[in-house]
Amino acid sequence: IWFDQIDDSQPLDETIWNSLLSFLDEQGIGVVKFDKEKQQLLSDWMIIEDDSESSWYSWTKTERSIGQRFEFSLEVKPHGRTAALKVDLRDYLETVNDEVVGDIDHSKARRNEIDVLNNVISHYAKQIRIADARRLRQIQQGLSMDLGFNGDGDPAFVVDAKYDITWPRVLLVLRKLGFNVKDLDQSNGLLFVSYSGVDSSWWNNLWGGASELQLEKTDYRLVLKEQGDKTSITFQNDESVPLPSKVLTEIFQPLSEVMATDNLDI
Asked: pLDDT digits over 229-253, tens only?
């Protein structure tokens, strides 16, 4: 099965392996060997117990136990944003009453491999849904922001959140404050915007009469960079020169209040 990168906070192969390990742990299945460099994992025995009655006329009870070990391998494309997870049945052992069977035909082995892979995919999809819901709640919640400096020592705003949460939150804040996003590059943290201001009645309703940003209505560039668990936002003019701290200080209050507003509608 092929996977595509949907979360830039960690490499795709790490996301897939973490999900698989979580699935095995949830099922109480151990790991015999995990070689991250070779992108291979061998599971411990997956045991299926079947204690069922046979047909009514035989008056017998069948005790059946199946043990299987699977090898998972990951093939990652050179660009790292696409990967294929494969599974092979490496060992099989079936016990029916006192009889032991160590072989399985190819078609049945194939069905078992598909069944295991489908369960792994379902677990992965469930984790993605949970992560998406958690991330959406974080984006909608208010984030605190301070005046500070970026990694190069330029004046910047510093948001108390990681990059993957700050980026979509900033897009919401900019729209609310009257910025028009003309172009963007999330992988490099670049936003090309123009400031046109907002209807004064919106400001009056939000803060009881606060004025809009004291900022020239022209084009700007914003650079977002991860700084540990926080994210810096550097405002630049259209020639990539950082705005002075005096300008940032003048726009900090209204910008930080919108950034901190809970349940900001999307």
From this structure: 999 999 999 999 999 999 999 999 9
